[in-house]
Amino acid sequence: MTQRRARLGVMGGTFDPIHHGHLVAASEVAARFDLDEVVFVPTGAPSFKQDVPVTPAEHRYLMTVIATASNPRFTVSRVDIDRPGLTYTVDTLRDLAADRPDADLYFITGADAIAQLLSWKDSAELFERARFVAVTRPGHTLSVAGLPADRVSQWEIPALAISSTDVRARARDGKPVWYLVPDGVVQYIAKHGLYRGSQS
Ligand code: ATP
Ligand code: MG
């Protein structure tokens, strides 16, 4: 009898901060594709956010750990934050593949991120290393046209109109962020005074 290969979901993001949109995307794709685990990978220095201030990686990493701790199938990886230089997804997938040669990788993105995919570094290699699952996101049209059909799927998920940009703006303006992010993340933001002076 041949054993089924492990299926590892990969949820990449800046997670500044992590919110329920990220968690629902990971959970829905895990259920649809029968994933054994989803690893959340906070970026180091995101190559496409060089002109905007990003919260130090250690805060983003810890908030991601807090948000995912209660789910036995969710884990968090430091590969991107421990790698010097800008973060490119191709390096993420190379590192995870080296770490988990037993597993097929399923990279999870929202509709806005998948639209940029062909502009990512070494995009042809990305499709060799992982399957991509693009999920719906309010305010963005989901299209996978032009991407290799055998490696890219789309999946409709419950619409949560939440973005980290909006959570940061709310925290800066003293508005509530309860129920947009997990309770522990609300408390972490308050404890460390994150986003108080943020511009976005
Ligand atoms: P920012 O506003 O700072 O860009 P963000 O909310 O877009 O933050 P990211 O960390 O940039 O969060 O996104 C990580 C991944 O999660 C991306 O693939 C993005 O498309 C996806 N994503 C983020 N929010 C949602 C959401 N509400 N629904 C579905 N997918 C989402
Ligand atoms: Mg984003």
TrEMBL record:
GO terms (BP aspect): NAD+ biosynthetic process
MF terms (GO), sorted A to Z: ATP binding; nicotinate-nucleotide adenylyltransferase activity
Residue ranges of domain Cytidyltransferase-like in the record: 10-170
CDD domains from the UniProt entry: NMNAT (cd02165)
Keyword set includes NAD: yes
The entry's keywords: ATP-binding, NAD, Nucleotide-binding, Nucleotidyltransferase, Pyridine nucleotide biosynthesis, Transferase
Catalytic activity: nicotinate beta-D-ribonucleotide + ATP + H(+) = deamido-NAD(+) + diphosphate
Involved pathway(s): Cofactor biosynthesis; NAD(+) biosynthesis; deamido-NAD(+) from nicotinate D-ribonucleotide: step 1/1
InterPro entries reported for this sequence: Cyt_trans-like (IPR004821), NadD/NMNAT (IPR005248), Rossmann-like_a/b/a_fold (IPR014729)
Lineage: superkingdom: Bacteria
EC number: 2.7.7.18
HAMAP family, per database record: NaMN_adenylyltr
NCBIfam families: cyt_tran_rel, nicotinate (nicotinamide) nucleotide adenylyltransferase, PRK00071.1-3
Function: Catalyzes the reversible adenylation of nicotinate mononucleotide (NaMN) to nicotinic acid adenine dinucleotide (NaAD).
Family: Belongs to the NadD family.
Record's protein name: Probable nicotinate-nucleotide adenylyltransferase
Organism in which the protein naturally occurs: Cellulomonas triticagri
Gene that produces this protein: nadD
